[in-house]
Design a protein that fits this description.
alpha/beta; Rossmann fold; 7-stranded parallel beta sheet; about 40% helix; about 15% strand
Amino acid sequence: MKALMFGWEFPPHILGGLGTASYGLTRGMAMQPDMDITFCIPKPWGDEDQSFLKIVGMCNVPIVWRDVQMDYVRERVGKYMDPQLYYNFRDHIYDDFTYRHVNDLGCIEFSGRYPENLLEEINNYSIVAGVVARTEYFDIIHAHDWLTYPAGIHAKNVTGKPLVIHVHATDYDRSRGNVNPDVYAIEKNGMDNADHIITVSNLTRQTVIEKYHQDPAKVTTVHNAVEPLSPEILAIPDRRGVQDKIITFLGRITMQKGPEYFVEAAAKVLAKAPYARFVMAGSGDMMDQMIRLAAARNISDRFHFTGFMKGKQVYEVLKSSDVYVMPSVSEPFGISPLEAMQCGVPSIISKQSGCAEILDYAVKVDYWDIEALADAMYSIITYPAMHKFLKEEGKKEVDNIKWEYAGQKVRQIYDKVLSI
């Protein structure tokens, strides 16, 4: 079984949960001996793990024919892919794109991020996908999130192969309902053209059915999972046990993630437990607003903003934390509480998150209920028995939530789609 996947992020260069989920799912699927995955991203950096899949950087796929020598191609793209693949792609350029801005190899350059001209990059990505789809051999197309739906549709139209799209989030989640019509149109078109839709939670599945008017029979939930901790992460020393109790928020500081509820609840906890400290790890467009809110509540001396963190830094913060909090307003899934629980950190999550559907040993509150959130924080740092119970049972629970199982569910969906 060969799958052509379109994605936007891949570790170690990630900007959010999409990259983490893409890595975990593909690794889980690769445990099936006959599974062969080609994973496309806008811009590889050369240090991605390709031991279980093949990565194609769309910035290295020509759309304009250039007469270039093998030695030069090897020098330019050899770090990222087999240079011969460049020539294979060049043989499948399907239209005259000389009017487009390309480099000396005839390739479009991508930022590999989420730039101001994101819609233009999405369109460019779909043009390049036409070359890739005409070159690669595969049985099924799998497009991750709205950014790659146009690429998936193009690949389907070119080859006639079935398209599965993976909804990691919708614009209803990202915007608190203030939906961008351009993004909605891309999402809706992707869903309408898909042969099957995978959602990361039942919460997201309901949004897809109700807001995007999709047939329920066409939409299947496959919950996300968590990677086992590496020896490097396990070796990070546990820094808990000091007198101050650390309560951590880790994620994008945007309205979707509910950071203001965390700050307001922190002020209530500090009124009763002045020995608590609060960490807001991450970056986002509400960061300055949160700094001002902490100052207005007169808790700045107990509140720490770390900025964006990734990889090992995330686990260093978690292993210094007594409680992890995810008060998201609308969270399609939310992998970070699972990562916290792996580290033995009791977690509080909003009932409005997809991971709440599969976690029994996390405390669940409504995101807007600041009193309940503050009570949960206070209880966990005040009652050692409660902390110990959540720590031990939570770790046991997440150790059994594996990407391998998610990968098996995706494979069943592939088999079903291909049998129709």
